[in-house]
């Protein structure tokens, strides 16, 4: 990676928002996978990841 590689402020904001939406969606899907349990396990997250990655 070049030391001179930079990202604009707007680009950083957009990337940050995209990542935030990704995490929120992952949590919602994992919660649904856990059948609305109070606890979401790593297994629940593993089950939703393939489809989530294809959707994003």
From TrEMBL:
> Which residue windows are transmembrane per the record?
none
Keywords per UniProt: DNA damage, DNA repair, DNA-binding, Nucleus
Asked whether the UniProt record includes Secreted among its keywords, one would answer no
Subcellular location(s) per record = Nucleus
GO MF annotations for this entry? DNA binding
One family name in Pfam for this protein: CENP-X
The record's listing under InterPro entries reads: CENP-X (IPR018552)
Name a biological process GO annotation: resolution of meiotic recombination intermediates
Tell me the domain of life.
Eukaryota
Q: Name one GO cellular component term.
A: FANCM-MHF complex
Task: Report the family membership.
Answer: Belongs to the CENP-X/MHF2 family.
- Report what the protein is called: Centromere protein X
């Amino acid at each position: 990676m070049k030391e001179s590689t930079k990202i604009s402020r707007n680009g950083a904001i957009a990337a940050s928002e995209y990542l935030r939406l990704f995490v929120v969606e992952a949590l919602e899907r994992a919660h649904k996978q856990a059948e609305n349990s109070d606890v979401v396990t790593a297994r629940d997250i593993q089950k939703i990841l393939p489809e989530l990655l294809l959707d994003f």
